[in-house]
Amino acid sequence: MVEKKVSVFRKEHFNAAHRLNNPMLSAEKNKVVFGKCNNDNYHGHNYELIVKVTGVVDAVTGYVIDLKMLSDIIKTEVIERFDHKNLNLDVSDFKALNPTAENIAIVIYNILRAKIDTKYELKIVLYETERNYVEYPA
Amino acid sequence: MVEKKVSVFRKEHFNAAHRLNNPMLSAEKNKVVFGKCNNDNYHGHNYELIVKVTGVVDAVTGYVIDLKMLSDIIKTEVIERFDHKNLNLDVSDFKALNPTAENIAIVIYNILRAKIDTKYELKIVLYETERNYVEYPA
Amino acid sequence: MVEKKVSVFRKEHFNAAHRLNNPMLSAEKNKVVFGKCNNDNYHGHNYELIVKVTGVVDAVTGYVIDLKMLSDIIKTEVIERFDHKNLNLDVSDFKALNPTAENIAIVIYNILRAKIDTKYELKIVLYETERNYVEYPA
Amino acid sequence: MVEKKVSVFRKEHFNAAHRLNNPMLSAEKNKVVFGKCNNDNYHGHNYELIVKVTGVVDAVTGYVIDLKMLSDIIKTEVIERFDHKNLNLDVSDFKALNPTAENIAIVIYNILRAKIDTKYELKIVLYETERNYVEYPA
Amino acid sequence: MVEKKVSVFRKEHFNAAHRLNNPMLSAEKNKVVFGKCNNDNYHGHNYELIVKVTGVVDAVTGYVIDLKMLSDIIKTEVIERFDHKNLNLDVSDFKALNPTAENIAIVIYNILRAKIDTKYELKIVLYETERNYVEYPA
Amino acid sequence: MVEKKVSVFRKEHFNAAHRLNNPMLSAEKNKVVFGKCNNDNYHGHNYELIVKVTGVVDAVTGYVIDLKMLSDIIKTEVIERFDHKNLNLDVSDFKALNPTAENIAIVIYNILRAKIDTKYELKIVLYETERNYVEYPA
């Protein structure tokens, strides 16, 4: 019998400041490339984070994974480190990495991938605004 | 010429009571595994159900499938049986199956798979809350 | 100088089972009046609760009321008592009161009115579904 | 090293009138097939358009694609031509093509595919209403 | 004892075509005043309609008004006449009245006011888009 | 004849960084009062701004106010000054005023009140997050 794979999704959120800037580029070039997202004093977002976990439904629980446990992992590993922070200044992962939505999603994936059993597939969806969002891996 | 495949989605909803409980486990173990979702007297949700049907666009209608017809099938086969019901007590599919979101999605898939032409691929997305949802098949 | 009054809103949610039934009426009459909401074995909802507090902006904090504190009061007084419960069976306020959205909103108002300083005006908005909601006081 | 592929999404909207009708069919047959969507004098929708672009994250910018640039392309190529228009009468793509959601999504895909570098994968999601939407390619 | 007044809200929707035009003005003037909303061949919207009814909670039912009954009235009196129609051409109320959101809300109010017991206060909220909406009476 | 008053609403948004801090208080006291909102390096939000204008419907246009014109005023006077900015450092109105949601709403009200004809009533709703929002005047 083929096992039934189901994807489960948990949505969390965090509020953070950031600016887009590449220190390898000149100030003028950064302004051209990143526009108002390059504002010296930062701006911010209400990020909506969706974590997708795919696996087999457990016969005893009827769960792919306990979403309460998944939520706790996301809160401990991501939300507590990112929420009400300045991503550029307060979060070490972005000390040398531009905090675009793409890069934030990859960082979150790597953080959670290390904490979630490899028997599960993992995907991250990150909304920077209601109209701009990203998914990793594609 | 390769035929163009398009996915179409229809969203419906139902309101139901349920509790998570596995009669093979002790009451204590059920409380540990399912927490407040194990509440003896049930709790409930506004379930949002999205049915995704993938197929070729019909040259005469410009439709993959008539969404009115799809909506009617969902209403007759799922909504009328699940809406304003207690999933554990009133819906026969869950007499011996724990009504987790994962299992509800699989049950709905199986119900609709039997009613929708096999030339179409079928997928179910089920929101238990705005922050917890599942997709089957993954 | 006239003081500036601002309204602040905090949104919380809870998931509960309920049924509409008036024990003073016959079973047949209850079925006619409440339709499928009268289902013997209950059904349920994801209730969205919005608490509106109106008052003067504090010159020191810039707050009408600390929304973190308001959220804590709502959680302690309402969410912990209502969430993942059967309103008819598990919540004493509805032992002799039909848990319509109107009555739930009035009950929540009375609970919170006793806990929130009378210098504040208070209003409750309660969504039973996305399409049905109530406000008290009107 | 394998390059990291990320999908980025940009949501735009347009408001348009349309009717569903196939001139190869009789008026009676069109009425049967398309129901109230066949109304002679048109009806309309607030279409929500999501454009998904998948590619490698650029090491200099941290972007898959500049979403401001993507938004400008969508506005110039799609929104300016479709917004506040009658799709059947004002948009040449639908002179001989029934403007179902499926066909509108395919038309938008073809328009944007010609304007977006082939190194990117492209997908269109189009909401006709909150409850009816389509995705192309499937 | 003062009776408790509660407001109840029911949300419905309809999809319609319209154009803004005042036949008393010249074509040029209409174009200046109404811009792209004046498009000769119409455009359209998914209108979201919220009907607010305020009254005393009935001691027997716990209802202000039966929302199922209210929904039926809205469907019969408004949705069936407006949905999948061209407001300018198909709905007699707008034969001599510009179908702005303001005027549509007033028309709906007048239609429903005649059908809903005068013991109830009535208010209409009408969303033309997610970003533009109106309320009547103010 | 009594003139019909209608309220019209226009929703805009801006993304900004801020921190809550009162320089009259000690650092310790600020930390106690504002918690994580006091983070030294700021955090941020996607603010949703709703501007409500109430007035008489113009007999010629069917408008209370041209929402395109209202949107332009909001964009010029508020969005261009607040969007992608640090409210504390970049926006002069908050040089000596703590940028709580309450104070931001009052500032926006004062800015717009000076630009909108006094024949109109004006109200501001400001969402800091989906779950925290304010309204001014109350």
Overview of the molecule:
Six copies of one chain form a homohexamer. The mean pLDDT of chain A is 97. Chain A has four helices and five strands. In chain A, a hairpin with a 4-residue loop joins strand 4 (121-127) and strand 5. Chain A is elongated and about 60 Å long. By secondary structure, the first copy, chain A, is α+β, with helices and mostly antiparallel strands. The first copy, chain A, has a single domain (5-136), classed as 2-Layer Sandwich (Tetrahydropterin Synthase, Chain A), CATH 3.30.479.10. Chain A has a five-stranded mixed beta sheet with strand order 3-1-2-4-5. Chains A and B meet through strand 1 of A and helix 4 and strand 5 of B. Strand 1 (5-18) of chain B pairs antiparallel with strand 5 (132-136) of chain D.
